[in-house]
Amino acid sequence: NIGKKMSCQQFIANLDQLNDGQDFAKDLLKTLYNSIKNEKLEWAIDEDELRKSLSELVDDKFGTGTKKVTRILDGGNPFLDVPQALSATTYKHGVLTRKTHADMDGKRTPRGRRGWKKFYAVLKGTILYLQKDEYRPDKALSEGDLKNAIRVHHALATKASDYSKKSNVLKLKTADWRVFLFQAPSKEEMLSWILRINLVAAIFSAPAFPAAVSSMKKFCRPLLPSCTTRLCQEEQLRSHENKLRQVTAELAEHRCHPVEKGIKSKEAEENRLKDHYLTFEKSRYETYIHLLAMKIKVGSDDLERIEARLTTLEGDDPSLRKTHSSPAFSQGHGTVTGSKAMKDTTGPDT
């Protein structure tokens, strides 16, 4: 739909020396250019499927049996349309009151949709389900429950210290930069939710994709995969540490070239957005590293032991006391230990 389209020669020139310092074969690039020109690039799913309900149920085969999985669309991005098994491990559940603070890309939620609503929250696998009725492991999720679901891959939960209207409020920022406020019944529950959401995100979030190659100066956040990492926990920790070093170096380099204060321009806004992004990513990976290193040091998958250890090392903080839903972690989101955790995951697949 653009007026002046890129020529084949321009396409080839844009990719000069991007093959590990060498040029790609021109015949290969010509073939690729003509392929894109003749057949436009399509989304992973078509527009009709995008218009379907957020709670579309699909069948997926696991071994010999057939189980239901839920397809959840995050915003309008079809690349995040990854099926999630409903038989995943339940890591925590309890009452939370939610307020939607910002929509995708951090855009302020319209006033009419910012009200507080009470839910029964269930952190299951890497999804936080918000249900209207009390959690029962053998109960099927309703369409409304699925529409309210939030993915916590690459998310960061923190105490909402800048929000003073209510007590015991945590802030959850997701991979697509939506922001939610949750009020817990107590300070203990608030920090327990923060710990478990961040620990789930630290253990299971797959490494981020490399940044896109572009000649545009506009800042764009990289796409964060919603699939589960294939790395073991020690490798995952090293991956987070490498990412933290990269982000820290990039932030230092970015701040070496500040935009003059008081200037209102696109360049200044891009500079501000990038600084905000890098600062948030630095904080996120620091949190992931701290929690994952602690879990490995404790040498247990039991969340009660991990919370108790954090209490011991970080002071006599009542926020890390044991809670009622304390399963163990498993890399595949399936096997858990303890009678309560088994009760949470032995219900029928729905």
What is the correct CATH architecture of the domain at 90-204? Answer: Roll
Q: Which stretches are poorly predicted, pLDDT < 50 over at least 5 residues?
A: 53-83, 316-326, 331-350
CATH homolog superfamily of the domain at 90-204: Pleckstrin-homology domain (PH domain)/Phosphotyrosine-binding domain (PTB)
Enumerate the strands of the largest sheet in spatial order, edge to edge or round the barrel: 7-6-5-4-10-9-8
- The number of helical segments is 9
Main beta-sheet annotation: 7 strands, antiparallel
Write the element-wise H/E pattern from the N-terminal end onward: HHHEEEEEEHEEEEHHHHH
* Spatial shape: globular
* Annotation, overall tally of beta strands: 10
Structural class: alpha+beta
- State the helicity in percent bands: 25-40%
State the end-to-end CA separation. Answer: 44 Å
CATH class of the domain at 90-204: Mainly Beta
CATH topology (fold) name of the domain at 90-204: PH-domain like
Strand content: 15-25%
How many whole angstroms does the radius of gyration measure? 22 Å
Query: What's the rounded overall pLDDT mean?
Result: 76
